[in-house]
Amino acid sequence: MESDGSFIVFPQSVGYGIIIGVGAAFAIGMMGLSWLLSKYMNEVQDSEMLSTAKRSIKTGLIASAVVSSWTIGSTLLLSCTTTYNLGVSAAWWYGAGACVQIIIFAVAAIELKRKAPNAHTFQEIVRIRYGAPAHITMCAYSLIQQVFYTANLLINGSSIFSNITGINREAAIVLLPLFVIMYTLMGGIKATFLTDWTHVVIIFVIMLIFLFKAYTTSDLIGSPDKMYDLLIAASNAYPVEDNYHGSLLTFTSVNGGLFGLVLFGAGWAAAVDSQLFQKAIAADPAGALTGYTLGGLCWFTLPYALATTMGLAARGLEITPDFPTYPERLNADQLANGLVLPISAYVLMGKGGAGAVLVMVFMACTAAFSSETVAVSSLWTYDIYKAYINPNANGKRLVIMTHAGVIGFGIIVIVLAIGLGRAHFDVSFLTTCCGIVVNVCVIPMGCTLFWRKMSGFAMVCSTTISTAISLAVWIGYAYSQSKEVTLASLSTYAALAAGNTVAVGVPVILVPIFVWIKHDNFDWNIWKTNIKQADDSEFDEAHGLTNVLSGEELTELVISQEQQEEARMIRKRNIGFVIVTVFVLFFLILFPIPLYGTKFVFSKTFFRGYIVVTFIWVFFSVGVVTIYPVWESRQSIATLFKKLFYKETSSKLYSDEVYAIASNNIEKTNSDDADLKQRVVVNTEKVSDEDSNK
Fold this sequence. Notes:
Blueprint: H1 12-41, H2 47-52, H3 59-70, H4 73-86, H5 88-115, H6 122-130, H7 132-165, H8 169-175, H9 178-217, H10 224-237, H11 254-267, H12 269-272, H13 274-282, H14 288-317, H15 332-336, H16 340-349, H17 351-389, H18 395-422, H19 427-438, H20 442-450, H21 456-482, H22 487-490, H23 493-517, H24 525-530, H25 537-542, E1 545-546, H26 551-590, H27 592-597, H28 604-632, H29 634-646, E2 653-654, H30 656-663, H31 674-693
Parallel strand pairs: 1-2
């Protein structure tokens, strides 16, 4: 064990080998898959495909993508560290405090798909509704969250690689996103969804290995009962401050509750991040609600189950001679560097365990980076370039700008991550403090989707004033507690909880006041008529597609199809409200609060059942995010392999939209454009005839 807070297990060659080797393999694999889909499945990477995947992603892939994009290094490392410090309650609060936002977001996703079916970003609907001032304000908040969030995940990932393999931290910051940028340039958001699924499969498989090793086969633990005995001994040796009886096995924990409040507040920052809406926009309307709900339930298991296993294992084994630091405890530097998970894995599985942690962190960081890159490039392309620089840009020009956005964003966050790393900013601090600035947008964003009277004046005033108030409360509370303002005083659970909750809560008061001063009466149909799909016809034709529909025709076609789905979408939204109510009550009140209030300390029987339920939940999540997407896409996968095996390519290629219409046997639309109706029917018949001739 190194004195500088590192834990060198491997030579530098292993660190560079994982980052470069695995990164290059993913880049080559995804670029090859993008080429195959283009050649055999008519998926040309035009501007709409790059940014929205033609709004066709199904439920299972949405769920796995949500899990992947919500999972960063901090999800794996910080959850284990806080559980090591505070006990079982921290694992629950990390998962519950940050997953309910995903489930709540499912309702917003449905409403966005219903009211603005052709939107490319959430900021785009803000611009159409409120105009430039509110739009620029919203873009600024989103970019702040995205830039710091992405820089944070690079700092997090590079720190773990540096502390376990000894590689240069700044080199890791540069290399981690390098190959991600390459495959994102080639495959856009569709490549992001596919890599999300691959990364999630690997992360869940490794987590399952850890669970089975700790609770069934390990000589050091091997059963929930042995883990319970170790935790009782650890609680007696080193009682947890402000936990009931100092126990690791209780939810009656002051700091545990504050940590949950911090996570609940900080988790809302992700809603301001445009990548979450980007996945909603890319979703098939029928799958948005189910995809986000399942994604939230499955993501919960990652920090919860991993920390309940590895965080508790580290704390229990720390008092045994098998632990690397015995008889000393982990020091502050090791905890700040997030080494609880890798050290715990090393104790249980040797170098193989530490290597598995490196792979998990690599997968989490690169998948999240890819999602952020696509979201920021779309924001740049549609909300800055097309909105204010070149409103008449065609699809070819938008593709160029999207690629420029991918490269530019990568350079900016790499430079920022290196700077923040040199300034020794703590990863957990960056994770939890961003919400104090950007959470102020959550209520105005909800009002934008659900309240006609919401105005641009109210959005601008409520967000900016609330930011000033939340920063003042955060800094003021930190000063009142320690009589100084430092990174340490600003990083306390109480100060962060105060800042994050005020940021979410103050707009609840300010928005109605500013709406009363100046209100609007918005016509929801404006989003349908004024937001149009990009015209990629020239680009598609240049890449071999024929019978391509123009942007205007595609816009009209999508709107007409949406009108047919209106009743079903409203029903799904209402179901979503019920689902949200049930799960929010369960995660935040019905389960944890009685355990907190009754000062209950887990018995051995209760802990055994707790672990059994954890395993069941993990198995459910594995099925949803790994098997379900494959089952759901089985026909497309079979078609691709059939064409590969028989070397079949269409003698005449059609646009994705026309082919989709043919596949779904849609022979007419509600459009008033007779020519469009005829083109759709004719193209449908041509595609159907071509398929039958094969």
